[in-house]
Amino acid sequence: MPSSAGEGWFGRFQRDMKDAPPELETGPRIARYAIVESLGEGAAARVYRAKDLELGREVALKVLRKEVRAHAVASERFHREARILAQVSHPNIVTVHDAGVADGWMYLVMELVPGRTLARMFWDRTHDLPARIHLLEKAARGVAAAHEKGVVHRDLKPANILVTPEGEPKVSDFGLAQRSESETALTVSGTTMGTPLYMAPEQAEGRTREISPRTDVFALGAILYEAATGNPPHQGEQVMEILSRITREDPIPPRVLNPKVSRDLETIVLKALDKDPHRRYANAGDLAEDLRREREGEAILGRPPGVVRRTWKWARCHPTWVAIAGALVVFAAVRLGSAVRFRHRIDALRDQARTAEGVRQFSQARDLYGEIRTLAPGHPEAEARFHEMDRVVRAEERRRASERFLSDGRKASERRRELEEELARLRVEEGRLSEAIPAHEGPERKKPLWEIQRRIGETQDEMTQRASDLKVALTSAVGADPDFAEARSSLAALYFEEFERAEEWPRTHLPPDDVRPLIDLQRKIAMRVDPFRERRVHDRLARRADVEFFGELLPSAMRHHRALGCEAFHVILLLVEERLGDEERKVAVLDAERLDAPIQVLLDRLPQRVPVRLEDDATFHVSMLGEIGLGDDVEVPLGEVLLRVGEAGHGRSVQDSGTNMLDNS
Amino acid sequence: MHNDDTSLGAGRGAFPDTTGGLIGRLGNSDPSSRTAALETLSRRYWRPVYRYVRLAWNKSNEDAKDLTQAFFLWLMEGEALGKYRSDRGSFRGYLKVLLRGFSAHHEEALRCLKRGGGVRFLSFDEDREALVVSSGPDPERAFDAVWASDMARRAIERVRAKLAEEGRDKAMRTYDEYVLSPSEEAPTYTSVGERLGLKEDQVRHLLSDVREEIRGEIRKELLESVRSEEELREEMNAIFGR
């Protein structure tokens, strides 16, 4: 028999069999879709022409490859984006009908688009330039519809844009193109993946956090460039060579290669292809809009790069010509200096931007600063504030997206709790019936029991489904905003719950890296908190050991306090209270609205405590913090809680005395 | 069973009637046929039962072997097997029920066996081959896990022999390289193909063939003891860990 290294031959055998159900190998059918023929195979999936047996229509069935499914992040994203995409309906997007898992295969069901890809069309050169550009304008509108839902395509290329026989472009493969790390590695070694020709610099450099709708704008720009000149903007023999050109070299202006390209179209294409994402169109909608203006002869909104910037870029590429460049700069400066009206305009924009920022209209402020940057590249205030505003706006967007997923998660969790109760009820009923009905009874009398058992099965199935929904929602919430503590602590709590139930991590369900320390901490705390509480009165020695244990835990609890939420505070309060040595001490219920969420959670979870006087407790607690080595870390929210406890309890500020106590300690 | 639409490939006619199959032969009045069936049964279930006994009653290796032996003797002499009704669940499940029932008699059975009351009708050297399945401390789960891995092991070995006979060693080697004893962490069709001088498509097809053969062998063995399409499907899923 084969060796049993690692997970053992049998584990591998099972996994392999699970991944290759007979349906796919012999009888071509997944869920209610009968496979007709293979349409092609990509890096991440196989696509089939299939028939929806229920609705009797033909569809494109995309089945994820095993390697991709094994990658938890990729599969979570698959689910999330499939769900979002199913809501995006636009004539220029391939409609997603359905997505799911059957027999362990993840599949996506899409509209079947007859026709050919844009890549093929470019090759055939059947359309003239304006027709090609018009087609891409429509494709950009499709992409824009997805951008509005917060979905970034990430892998736009002519092969992903289908063109129907009626000439309508349809963008396919949204969001599904994100590759797992292993595949990216393969990409770099250049062995399997196709082409990075349409990749934006932030992707080429692996700055995945910067991927945004502007990444798609770059890709659309590259496709426009190819439509205009016949070739993509950055070419090369080797993958690395192309990637390097994408990040370093500016493309040759399209009009040099094809004089038929209008000046405005050139401006649009080059703006879309800017190395700096913030200088590109903010999204595909803006790009499409400028393409329309160009087509209808209106003035476009995108402006050619400023003279200073162009000169600077040119000087960088041609150091030997810097002397001449210098002359150009002087010329440009003279021109700028004389443009008084221009300066007025900049000032007006700046004032508007400041006002917008003052009233917290960050997105508007960002656009205004952005406009200044376009008009006057290098404007110090616009430069600094633009990035700041952009950061704030994006953080807000992420938070909002994360909150939406969290709310989905709450719903799933609630439903799961209901089902749990239902299951318990059914189990009792099952026990009662199986006692009441003798084992040798015939089917007639056993029917009610069987009915209950059937319902138990159904309930369990739905619970599994809800549990999976919950995990998808929470993982998505963390994915949408990794800095959102509530999302992380919810996800950590979920994994913790799983961990407790399973006793060890199932191989396929390892938690994401960024919540793992939290779970460890939660485990450690959970192991000790309950016994600690029980021992409070009885066993002084054991209590001292616990206090020391928590003391050791404290630094990491503090480090993670935001994500860990109540658990960390719990430990701290227990510890602090213990140090106080007064069993009767109570913590007041406070003006909770002013506190942040984790603290509120803490207060909810603290055992029912009667709001009583705290007299000097708050200051004392804070001084205790000093004593246990947290005095310097005054941003410690606990200190804040305690101070507020004092405020709420007595209507007098204890902040000063608290600070004094810290200073004194 | 009303589900005609199955992918497992066994039509309803493939199920043995009540007198055929392993279960049928166990209840047969002809003693020689019954003994042969019991021997088959004990060969197939020896290791799962052994594993169960070791964990459930916390026995040493030797005692567990004796108890396993005693269990099969108890089965042989008693009427329990004849009472099996397939409409109440799988045969495997029934054996577990019997094992639970055996717990009341196991000390006595062990004493009886040690006094020389039993004859060993099967020798099995447990130490020769460590149980490959780690299953945790739950005896019933251990029983199932060992049963599943044994079923798979037997099927794989039969397929190996069959393919060798037919001169299709390459398929089995591909399966070994990709599934059973890969020489790298996560083999791909490409990497296996490179090692064996095959194209990716060939690897895919060979693997698919071997899987189908294995499924067929497992199905064949299961058909000896299952009575319905649904049960067959459930047992196959149990083996494949679905």
Write out key terms for the chains shown.
heterodimer, A: 665 residues, alpha+beta, Phosphorylase Kinase, domain 1, Transferase(Phosphotransferase), domain 1, six-stranded antiparallel beta sheet, three-stranded antiparallel beta sheet, disordered C terminus, B: 242 residues, disordered N terminus
CATH architecture assignment of the domain at 114-304 in chain A:
Orthogonal Bundle
Radius of gyration from the alpha-carbon trace of chain A, in angstroms: 31 Å
How many strands appear in the DSSP assignment of chain B?
A: 0
Mean pLDDT of chain A: 70
Tell me about this structure:
The complex is a heterodimer of chains A (665) and B (242). Chain A is α+β, with helices and mostly antiparallel strands and 665 residues long. Among the domains of chain A are: 19-111, 2-Layer Sandwich (Phosphorylase Kinase, domain 1); 114-304, Transferase(Phosphotransferase) domain 1 (Transferase(Phosphotransferase), domain 1), CATH 1.10.510; 339-477. In chain A, 61% of the residues lie in helices and 7% in strands. Chain A is built from 28 helices and 9 strands. In chain A, the strands form 2 sheets. In chain A, strands 1-2-3-4-6-5 form a 6-stranded antiparallel beta sheet. Chain A has a 3-stranded antiparallel beta sheet with strand order 7-8-9. The termini of chain A are far apart. The relative contact order of chain A is 0.04. By secondary structure, chain B is an all-alpha fold. Chain B has 10 helices and no strands. Chain B has helices spanning 21-26, 31-56, 61-77, 91-102, 106-117, 139-165, 169-180, 189-196, 200-223, 229-240. In chain B, helix 3 crosses helix 5 (106-117), helix 6 (139-165) crosses helix 9 and helix 7 packs across helix 8 (189-196). Chain B starts with 20 loop residues before the first helix and ends with a helix. The relative contact order of chain B is 0.14. The chains are: A alpha+beta (665), B mainly alpha (242). The interface between A and B is medium-sized, with 27 and 31 residues.
